[in-house]
């Protein structure tokens, strides 16, 4: 079994934007990137779950990260994308404002995250990546989609 935390040659992350901030997730969790399209709303779902889409015959729940992180009212435009993720064997769509690029961060470019009491609790926040003048908030997508949420997402996808 491969240890995902070991990356002596660097960690590849997909960088994306939510508002003014840039975030990064492990590229190995990314299945594909799609333009934003209308979703089918689900009754009784939390507000951050926009609904579901049919992705080649598979029903995929769509989570809006701007709503999830309380970053204001989302705006859907030509830059809005859905990152299709494979998390713990589940396919989930994550709406973000835009995707920047795939970057490789060397171990010395990843700093521990300070405790600032932000919208993110300490669980999903892996650290901060620095690349030139960029600061990238690194997320553990497995922890972000907590077990309680994954249970709800499982029910939506069923």
Keywords:
158 residues, mainly beta, OB fold (Dihydrolipoamide Acetyltransferase, E2P), six-stranded mixed β-sheet, 3 helices, globular, disordered N terminus
- Quickly count the helices: 3
The CATH C-level name is: Mainly Beta
CATH evolutionary superfamily? CheA-289, Domain 4
Taken in chain order, the helices and strands follow as EEEEEHEEEEEEHH
Q: Write down how many β-strands occur, each being a DSSP E stretch of 2 or more residues.
A: 11
- Give the overall form: globular
Q: Strands of the largest sheet, in order across it? A: 8-1-2-11-10-9
Query: According to CATH, what is the topology?
Result: OB fold (Dihydrolipoamide Acetyltransferase, E2P)
Percent strand equals 35-45%
**How helix-rich are the residues, as a percent range?**
10-25%
Low-confidence regions: 1-7
The residue-averaged pLDDT reads 84
C-alpha end-to-end distance: 29 Å
Rg calc: 15 Å
CATH architecture descriptor: Beta Barrel
Largest sheet: 6 strands, mixed
Count of discrete domains: 1
- Structure classification: mainly beta
